[in-house]
Protein 1
Amino acid sequence: MVRSARNWAANDAPTYFALLLWLAANVLVFYRTFTEYMFEPKYYYLHEMLGIGLCVSRASASVLNLNCGLILLPMCRTVLAVIRGSTQCVGRKARRVLDGSRKFHMLCGAAICAAAATHSLGHFYNALNFSEHYNVKYPGVNAAAYHKQDPIQVLLTTVPGLTGVTMVMLLLLIVSTSSLAIRSGNYELFWYTHHLFLLLYCLMLLHPMRGILKEQLNLDDHPPGCHMLMDNTGSNDTLYLASEPEPEPETYPEPMVYPEPEAEPLPEGSIDEFGRIVTCEGPPVFATHAVEVWVWLVGPFCLYCAERVYRLVRSNSPATISRIIEHPNDVVEVQLTKEGFGAKPGQYVVINCPDVSTLECHPFTLTMCPSSTDPTFSVHLQKMGDWTESLYERLLPDTDATDETLPVMVQRQYPVLYIDGPFGSPSENVFHYDVSLCIAGGIGITPFASVLNHMLNEGMESSRLRRLYLIWVCKDITSFLWIAQVLSSLQRQAWNENRPDFLNIYLHLTRSRDVQILEREHPFLNSRVHVGRPQWRHTFDEVARHNARTTIGVFICGPKGMSRGIKRICLKQNKHRTKFEFHKESF
């Protein structure tokens, strides 16, 4: 199978277009700053002393500032949720770009690291040049105190140097604890070190204070190049005006024609077309160059802070736990209520439990949303780390459950939970297609559980969706019991409404072959169980055959390997001219 340009345009073209815009912005900012410090007259003396290091260090600083502002935008989750929910202003392709906000955050982080490394190396090269090319005539442009001063001393005795070294150390700490291994094994360490960016941004605002890079102020009185006419004693006050004799006046048959006033003036220290020496009126005056970092940071930083304050106010009141249901395979269902809380199917919330950690919080997809008649919403939690394990133990009773198959209803004193959200996710788009294909791996069923519950409570006619495929892959047969009751009820409802082809369920069991539990408890689903992994190409061909010339939304929440394979299939050409639009759930 070959790739289809039509499918590529539907899946990857919007993302690549946004990436090209980001690259163009970085290149434009780098080029503009580089040429400014290379050719602007006010940086003439500084460039003469530092050379290419000045241009590279300043251009990389502009790229660094740009990405430090952009990296905050994907973290404004409430703003993204509002934009995503505005279907009148934001189309399906634009929402697909918003789905990659987390990847864009990581991309900006990589650009920050590259720009910071380039900026640091450039300034170390500048320190060497400050030491080697100490200017005796114009001490105001120097950062070194004397000729051949130690470059390390030049850096560490200035505010920009000290703050720069501190920021590099902070950035190394943030990056080193952002790996997948740290996030999976010790999320608390990742969370706390990542929030050191607040200190990093404060240092960025202090970094240019009392800067070591100077620009010339009196360009009219002392144009660049005028230093060539200074006397041999090195005085800054005496101009050597008699270095060349005055030319003999020439006899012209007609009146002399002078240049028009609008013509560009010649630089000081040069000889005009009539042989006259153009002189300057005084020595150059230098001052610290204008600070620009706040221009890039203030807007995104204020937006981020305002959004965080809004989220703190919104999540200030705790939610009420109405029921805890223990499921097999270390999964617990938490049903909650909260006044004024509303959400859409596919969205997620961020949960904080002060009994586990005061500041640490984690995202969980809603498996049931509040409806017009029932304000209850729920999340499914599986033990996968220190935080979830601690919360799991606090939610369940201390007594041992004798039956691991049937859910255990518990009434007890529960810990306090604070709910922040809801926030948007790719699964919201399930109802924006006529045909949707939902693929889940293990606990990845949670985003689609809210979709199923919504259709069960609100009815199948509540959206434009006319056909839904659900493929759920699990290792153990008992995992299907998490939402087996919802699946059975919805399938029965579809038959009662004479829509047998609306819901197509495929349950794949990869390890356990004991299907007796499901057959005994939910016989309606027993015929949907398949032993072994799905044959993805055959499955997609069947879906395409039954929905020829249709655009199908493909939604997946599962392992990376499965996601990559399914995306490759979505990009392939099929003979039924069916277009698959790929959506991946990620936090």
Protein 2
Amino acid sequence: NTTQSINPSTHPSIMCRFHVTTILLLIAGAVGTSGSAASSARMTGETRNDGVPPSPSKTEESVRRLQSDGTPPKISAYQPDTNVFDYLVMDLDVAAINAAAARNDEDSVYDMEDVYREGGHSQPYAIITLRNGLPQPIAAGTACLGVDTDSESVRLYARKNYAQGEKQLELVYDDANTSPGGSKCQVGGLLKIRMEGCLRNEGDIYITGVDALDYFYDAELENYNARTISDFSTTARASMAQCGNSCPYEEYTKFVEYYGRYDYAEQWMNAALDLRPTEFENGDADWSKYDDLNVAETIRQGVVYLHIWMKVVERLERAVSDCSDCLSIICPANPENIWSQAVAYYSGSQVANENSTMLYYLADIRCGTFETCAPDSDTLEGGQGWSSVVNVEIFRLFSEAKDLLNRRSCLEVVAIKNRIIELMRIPLIQGALRYAHINANDQIYTEKHQVESATFAAAILPAIHKCSPDDAKIIYQAMKADSEAPKVDYPAVKRAFERNYECLNITCADVGGIYDQENNEYLPGAAPCSDSTTRRKFDRDAVRIAVFTFVGIGGALVVAIIVSYVKCKKDEADSKREIEMMQAANGDSELKLEENAVIS
């Protein structure tokens, strides 16, 4: 007949809530587990055998010719949905820089710098002066019509908004966006300019909604380019570190943390052009020890491996973040177009011939040195008549991701984007190993080789440093820009790279070894290493596996919640009946009050 107290830890109402809360926590854990499972599947994968991926579909269409159905031309095996001509022609700026370097004269570096800073092919625009000013405001994008130096009509559009009365206008040439070869007006910083597509020096300009207006300008001096290689670095902070919730981008952050500069590529180039040392936190180069002719090598290679390489990454990242920002099928942005811009920068307009200069070309050239070319059956159209496994796989992923972006399957594109970046590092590593091997041989070493070695190293050291600062230091000390003949311990450099392959999510087979084509064998000490672990690679089914896993686990847990809830309610009802019986027997009002307090 004594008063019975209620233990909250065993009361049915409290225990019911405990069981349900526990199951909810298990669901949260399942979400994390499924995500980890997807990550694990991507990171481990199956062991690589020959590992040659399936070939993308082939076509006989040239990248330089519009297809008969009016769709944009393919970029090798990739079919863009929209025209990206004005991005493809960035390789013509690179080609102009290479041509200036090839002259190997006292003006070479100056001409290279002009193209680097002022461009010549992408997004050309004219700055004209109206004699009487605008009679009314016009908006950015307003169409204009004029006459070019060959007396042909030329279409342009306003580059920005202009107020009534303004006299100076910036007008963009529209053929840059509609012609497979880019605009016919090619001036900028080029030594050999092309004027036939440029607005003539004076005349009338017809602006939509406005009467004909009299203008004048100097066609040779006032035609510029809004997109230059230098801009890729000087605008990097805004586009990759301070660009909203999706920033900073992971790969770019590695470079910023290593070099201590947001515009590290621009600073590298400025130091080379001024023949002075860089001022980085890590990875310095002292260009004061070289002459212009040798420094020209780091300029022509740096624009591709430092500037354009990271611009490809920026476009890939931006496409994914814009896709994620879309709340419906109709988006304010066009992520698949931005993705195609990345493909254009990677490939260039000359991807189908021997004048190619971009990352696509680097991967194919290095595969011949390192025995990492794909079988003939998988050769991509264009290029050198053969294809690297890197390019075959990258172009398969380019196409797969574009289709996913069109379906707004944004999360699945993240893993593909990451895998493409991993694959893009392989030719850089191959280039660094090749020149380290050359520099270790006193009989063939030259300062030019050392400059090339330092440039390749500069493009890959931030990623190595993120994995192992000690190994990055070994590589840097062997490959840094220093005019004294280096004492390169090639085996040590090779091992320093190889220790980080797993961290970089690549394998010994991916990188290969330096092959002697004449003797049909690897050079001594330069054979591929052996993969002792399973290949950590992108698994395109990982996300789907994770989703199905979550659905399966989630379904089971939902059933568990229902069963637990029903049982809890039954136990609670039984408990209340016990309490009522005890109250009736003892008249214990305090028991009722205590029970109500616990339940409430």
Protein 3
Amino acid sequence: YQRRVFFFFFFFFFPPLMFLRTAMRAARRGSEIWRSFGTTTATPLKCDPNHAILFEPVKLGPVTAPNRFFQVPHASSAGPHMPHTRAAIREVRAAGGWGVVCTGYVSIHPSADDAPFVHSRMWSDDDIPTHRLMTDAVHRHGALAGVELWHGANYIRNRFSREAPMSASGLGWHSGYSRYGGNTQTATMSRADIRDFKRWWVTAAERAREAGFDVIYVYAGMGYGPFSFIPSRLNRRTDEYGGSLVNRVRLLRETLEEVSAAVGRTCAVACRFTVDELLDRDGVTAEEGREALGLLAEVPDLWDVKISGERDCGSARLVQEAYQEPHVSWVKKVTSKPVVGTGRFTTPDTMADQIRRGVLDLIGAARPSIADPFLPNKIKEGRAEDIRECIGCNICIGTWHEGTLLRCTQNPTMGEEWRKGWHPERIAPAPAADTVLVVGAGPAGLECARAAGQRGFRVMLSDARAVLGGRCVRERTLPGLSTWARVSDYRLLQIARMANVEVYRGSTVTAQDVLDLAPAHVVIATGAKWTSHLLTPSESISEMPPLATQQQQQQQLGGAKSLRVLTPDDIMDGSLPVQGPVLVYDFEHFYM
């Protein structure tokens, strides 16, 4: 009898108790971290009156955004396997003053599986609790929580779910990028498939409402979801969902209407829409995009408008702040609903100007919110000079393409808010006011000195050059890369305010100097140089001498006497090829 009682207790009561214990520990840890997100150490100042318009509330259907700062949906690579990390990434934006904080893309059904890219999902009721972690976190700071519901249509391979991909006309997306999957064919959607498709959106929206989301997206851009029926190149149907633009827009209209009927009483329904695919005659042109949006002008509660292609998230080399304005400035003329748009906005004057001129109702941002989650609060406190401005390097996008957690050149805490408890504005005080010597004042050395100074250490920062900034000093002089100066400018400004940080310019430090100074901590941040190693089919970098000479490299390549290998460092030093031909070989594929 005792054995039976023990067996019953162990198998029926012990697992729930252990789960509860683990959940309570996680909740306590989470509450400690999340409470820390709510304040900054800065003394509040007065908001510039020219920027006050940015803090006006905006009504979005049945809900109201507390201000005009809108963190638009963007991927983070923190999927269902990292629910606390995913929640903390979004919560820090809410704590930083963003009025609306959205998820990344959330798949509505197993037929929309984007593996190996990391994304979230709303496939079943089991997904609701992990999303509620995020909505509860965002609501703690008075912000609205938005979810971007997504279906990939032509542009997915379903490697994980193994469901058959489907699309308007059975066409695939032909890509040479192996991670996207090449020439996978899709099945043509029948009328029954279309009914299922709309039902999946409604069911996912109802789950999103249950999870606590205030703004629910129908993602209809970049070829995804109902948008896949709109471009004539992807839609060759002859029924009521093909042919004329009215017919090709029909699926998006019906999806929006059915989602609104299901959740629209308590949640704002947003449509993220591509107004121009920038593909000339092969895609949805500006004229066709304008006509399509006009057909649906009053259907959703909010329009999130954008362009497609490489310029959608264009790097600083290609586009400047507010670069999407020429493509979206007409939207408010054809709809009475609020409009949000992006453009790598980093300066409050530009943001306020967008509102005053009637270009946008809400300032949308993905990359700027990554670089500085507290951007809105700094503007509100009159501290615009303290904003860590996005430099448009797109390392955030590059890491997502690698399937790894989002990183940021400007914000080293990005992605570590939960795992390490890092905060973008605060850092734990030093246990003692020890001396820290930082050798090298490039990006890493400057950030190290700034962070150590903020902690209360006595910092000595030394660099052999008179101009601080390391690699950024000359890379920012390259065409389109002037924004890279922000990496050093921000940190030099912060360091200049710290009485406990001494800066030594034009000061070469030797090993003996370090021994003589005898600091408690030494940080070597002298950087690295581009390699001139060349890889041949039979050689790897590990098999080559550490410092291969030009002669050795020539021997590797069969003794070409005229071979001269140059690196970006060489080119920027002014060492140019004397004569051709010249081969440019890219080792890193997406760098710069």
Protein 4
Amino acid sequence: ATKAINPSQWSQKYNAEASISKARVILIYGSWNRVTPTNCRDDYDVPRWVALVKDALSTRNDAPSDVECMAFSVKADADEESLDICADGEAAGGLGAPSSLPALLFLRLPASTTSDGEGNSSREVRLEHVRTNGSALEAYLTRSDDDVPSTDSRKNLVVSSVAEAWSRLFDSKGRLLPPQSKIGRAITAINNRKDDGPATRLFIAGDRSQVGKSSICLGLLGALLNSGRYAPADLAYIKPATQCEQTQLVEEFCKHKGITSCVPVGPIVYFKGFTRAFLKGEVGETSEQLLQKASDAVDKLARNKKVVIIDGVGYPAVGSITGTDNASVAKACGRSVNLTSSAGTARSPTPVLLIGKSGVGDAVDSFNINATYFDHSNVPVIGAIFNKLSLDGFYSLPKCKEAVEMYFDKFQPDRTAFGFIPEIPSLKNAREDLAADLSEKDQLNQALETAELFVEEFSRHVNVERVVNAAKQATAKYIAEQTLQSSSTTSESKRSFAEIENSLNDLPKSKHPRPATTPEYKNISSINGNGFSLTREQIEGMASVAGAAGG
């Protein structure tokens, strides 16, 4: 490994004319990546990434044998100088690292020199990046050889990308080719450079159950990491209300990526028998108390974070029978803000990203009816991502995308169709296709590889920074509007804080159901007619005997 060096200085650093004819293959990685420069492959006494280059060049019949490579690795965030050199483009004398790390590139110093007219000479540096997603490269480089069959599509994609980058640098006789026009994709300062502002909170809701909300959460987290703008410590995930307490892939993905701020099962759990027990006053908590627990959990998780992904449950109205539907949770889990000095604090509802189905008419109609549910509670909906679209036929992704985007442009100008995710054949039945004879550890590894593939595909179809910025803007707009309204009405009528907080809703505030109890109750352990509440075990036991299947 070496510290990042300005490419124009490499011939001085390695002052040997013999090395000029050699190409440099460089691995650029960050401290958050799992790939290490020294990991060796079983059949090579060289780093795995160097072996990858050898494998790639061996697939080219026209690869000249007399062009030798020198291998170097650079840790992008080793220090400020390394970060600047990796992030700067070629024109600025840098390596022009792509937005997704790790990355591979070829560097070549031509033998001829140019003079500046003052006795100083220099060589024009040639760089060619391997055009592959960082998550795909990392996933391949960190797998054991036994897990990489020759037919593996990811391996073939990475190998072909390396060979293609070489072909942009050399012709079949080893002669340096002229540079092609390039699109710069510089990385951004990351990791220890924290945002001073509060975390951006984003609520993910579905137009129905099983539409892929948690998969989209996983895709967002993975794409944010791969963008290079966020370290694992900058991100958080929580599902504040849930019907399922089994371990989900998004939880394992967070562990795998080092996202330690992950709460897959939040404080509101719709366990078996919950709703009927709640209505009878046997749960021991009111709607407001449950929502406060969700609010506290998100507040705690959001400290020192840049983005918090809040995963909804089912479709928007799920939980309405207990006053903890998705709109109410989104409101409760929003940022705490000061409206005016005299008004105190209130909550800015979390902006919602709806996950929709495939199609055109049905997809748009479903989006509208579900967005209306949030509108009624004055919770902003920034737009949608449409999931599981076919790749061919009348309802293919390109055709649906064209029509749905046309609708949003004409009739929903304040909202955005942020992306259209194809139904990926290799992922369609990923859970069912896990080999039964594999160990639990191997099944998990296989599932995580599936997650990496999904993140890679997700990143191609969704601009995650655009989603985050839309959420920021929606929150800022809401706070500005309500601050102005609160300031105006307070100065006119000197209303109490409770009145100001209630005025945050343009529409009448929905009434949350409450346990069957007298208005005078104070002790949540004595809230039903018999003077006591039941434990979860008691509620579930009675519900099971009665034949309940769920909450």
